[in-house]
Amino acid sequence: MSDELDILASGVFAAQHIALTYGPYCPPPPDILSRIEARWTEYTHAANRDGRTLFNSPVAYLKSASVNSGILHLELAETDYKTFFVTTLRDRAWFKLNSPSTITPALGNSILLTHADKAYLGVRSKAVAAYPHWAHLFGGVLDWPEQRGNTAEVLLEHLYRELAEELGIGANYLTAPPRVLGLMRDPVLAQPELVWHGELNEPLQVHGNALNAQEHDTILAVPLAETRFDGPPRTPVCAAAIGVAMRLTGHR
């Protein structure tokens, strides 16, 4: 795995320029499923010992992505977080050698929030499965949609739900519907992530207990043009998103 971020689709895409299709569900063969179950049990026990919790739920993984005539096409299929966690996040080397077809890279769906010359980042808590104590965007793994629409509405509904859960804010806090900055694949996690950008009406203020402590320890307000960063490290996707936003907004 390269240490460099993979750009799977570049360009700025408004919601109306995103199209979704859905592939068939292909469960792992019984022997592989048994291994996934066994490893998931081990990982959940270890997480519990460390004061963390792993939840299993249906999620969407990215089968393919392409850009044709200015439209970003995403093909999704159903998996669950357990299979994604074991085959992609934790035991990828084993599965690449023994069962590469069962690696299921769930699609991340996140947003860079900005206001004027500031970017807002969440410092991930120790309870999360990946990149604890790193600065990242807000969002998460895309839930498998109950209504499988073919437009970006599926993605936006999930994104707004994540913002409500993590920050207590909704779509009305944005000056306009967010736009996709690109589809990127994290070099460490091998997870594709759809990265949006949204401009806030006013500086982000998280009131009371709105900040989800299971997700983030705190929120940072970082100058977009800042070249030196003394805080926690930024995930590769986070750093790339800020770079794209800087170019779009004229911050150098």
Blueprint of the fold:
Layout: E1 6-13, E2 18-22, H1 30-49, E3 58-68, E4 71-80, H2 81-90, H3 92-98, E5 108-115, E6 118-124, E7 135-136, E8 138-141, H4 153-167, E9 179-185, E10 192-199, E11 216-223, H5 236-249
Parallel strand pairs: 2-4, 5-10
Antiparallel strand pairs: 1-9, 3-4, 5-6, 5-8, 6-7, 6-11, 9-10
Helix pairs in contact: 1-2, 2-3
CATH hierarchy, class: Alpha Beta
Counted beta strands = 11
Could you give the distance between the termini? Answer: 30 Å
Judged by helices, strands and strand pairing, the structural class is alpha+beta
Low-confidence blocks of residues = none
**Beta-strand residue percentage:** 25-35%
CATH architecture: Alpha-Beta Complex
Q: What's the CATH H-level superfamily name? A: Nucleoside Triphosphate Pyrophosphohydrolase
**N-to-C SSE string, H for helix and E for strand:** EEHEEHHEEEEHEEEH
CATH fold description: Nucleoside Triphosphate Pyrophosphohydrolase
CA-based shape: globular
Largest sheet: 8 strands, mixed
Radius of gyration: 18 Å
Keywords, separated by commas or semicolons:
Nucleoside Triphosphate Pyrophosphohydrolase; alpha+beta; 11 strands; 26% helix; eight-stranded mixed sheet; 252 residues
Quickly describe the structure:
With 252 residues, this protein is α+β, with helices and mostly antiparallel strands. Helix content is 26%, strand content 31%.
